[in-house]
Write a structure and sequence with these properties.
Blueprint lengths: L2 H6 L8 H13 L4 H7 L8 H13 L4 H7 L8 H17 L5 H11 L8 H14 L10 H9 L2 H10 L7 H8 L7 H9 L5 H8 L1
């Protein structure tokens, strides 16, 4: 392991060299880049190899390239099966509402492109999915890139919702939300929430409040 890995997980200093070597061999045996994962997410060394194997099988069963997901975002190993399945349902529902052909396959493709999306809160994902179905123009799912989705999901949720409420007619693509949300960076979260709540009958606001 590198000093970066130790800085991220100083608890590894309590492990014996034999223990670390055994854990790395087990991860390699599962087809994972063990040293890379240990350096980016040292907590992985605390996991039983049986648990990691089961998580890989679970993700594969959902249609993902599990090794790719874990290599890109090892923290996914910490997510429960129920959490992952709930988020996949959100992605699938959003893809169907957006009018994509083969929505499940396209949703899986986007997650593969940007695995970190699985770590965002269900509240944010549901709200943005409802916004997509309410405001975004219909598009072929194959033309939507992971970079578009990542920029949208990385945007502050309250700023994004207020941008949608204040500029509804201008929003037809994810990049419009990202651009317009910047107007509200200087406004505090409480003031943004008050603006959102004032439109409590709006479908996007309903989803935001329910979540």
């Amino acid at each position: 392991m590198t000093t970066t890995g130790i800085e991220r997980g100083p608890q590894v200093l309590n492990f014996t060299p034999d223990y670390v070597a055994e854990k790395l061999r087990a991860l390699n045996g599962l087809g994972l880049p063990a040293v890379k994962i240990a350096n980016t997410h040292p907590a992985t060394l605390n996991l039983r190899s049986e648990y990691v194997s089961e998580k890989l099988a679970f993700l594969t069963g959902l249609g993902f390239n599990a090794v790719h997901l874990i290599e890109k975002k090892p923290g996914i190993l910490a997510l429960t099966a129920e959490t992952v399945k709930a988020k996949v349902r959100i992605f699938n529902a959003a893809a169907r509402a957006w009018g994509w052909e083969e929505p499940e396959q396209q949703a899986i493709r986007l997650v593969q492109e940007w695995p970190v999306i699985l770590t965002y809160s269900p509240t944010k994902l549901r709200t943005l999915a409802r916004m997509a179905s309410s405001a975004f123009e219909a598009r072929d799912g194959a033309t939507v890139r992971g970079t578009e989705v990542s920029a949208l999901v990385s945007t502050n949720l309250e700023q994004a919702v207020v941008a949608y409420l204040e500029n509804e007619g201008e929003i037809i693509r994810p990049k419009d939300v990202v651009r317009l949300a910047k107007r509200y960076k200087a406004i505090g979260k409480q003031a943004l929430r008050e603006r959102i709540i004032s439109e409590r009958r709006n479908p996007v606001v309903v989803t935001y409040l329910r979540s």
